[in-house]
Amino acid sequence: MVTHVPAESYGDERGALLSFAAAQRGALRRSVLGLTEEQAASRPSASELSLSGLLKHVAEVELNWLRLAQQRPNEKQRTQETWGDGFRLVGEETVPEILTFWDGVVAEIEEHVRTAPSLDDTFPLPPAPWFPQDGKVSVRWLVLHLIEELARHAGHADIVRESLDGKTAFELVAAEAEAGTGTGS
After folding, report:
1. I want to staple 154 with a disulfide (CB 3.0 to 4.6 A). Which of 27, 31, 45, 117 is the partner?
2. Is the dihedral of CA 156, 157, 160, 166 positive or negative?
3. What's the number of CA atoms in the CB half-sphere (13 Å) around residue 38?
4. How distant, in Å, are the alpha carbons of 59, 112, 122, 157, 162 from that of 68?
5. Confidence of residue 1 (pLDDT cuts 50, 70, 90)
């Protein structure tokens, strides 16, 4: 663990879950610390993943799960034809623009989680071969799943960044602290 993740107060399950999600988001955001757009878009490892593409992907994944929980249409829903664009910046997209978009999504998720009457409240899963028929998940499951997704991609980002310039997660935490730019836990 790179940083200590406190709950807002002891016994505060919502706060603890949201803090762990924020810690993983911070790790992803730190992965682009000090990089140019070109460096963030590069693929220095055997993977097809880039740091800017990972940021865009997690922002869109979080939006998708939020819209499912809200039972609203996803304005950035990907099709089979546009699926790959969810893993790379296209057109005039920039890292700061993606981070700003993601900030808005995170604010909406946190509001949704904080205002849900109960973490046990459920919402339906969409029809898909990987979901159970007529499946439902809870708000608690949603946040835990986002933590899982964010952590998986934070690990990818660690490897891509280290392949790019040798910087490790610990070095990026120190650089962030030195610069006084808090991107998250």
Report:
1. 27
2. negative
3. 0
4. 14, 12, 11, 26, 34
5. very low
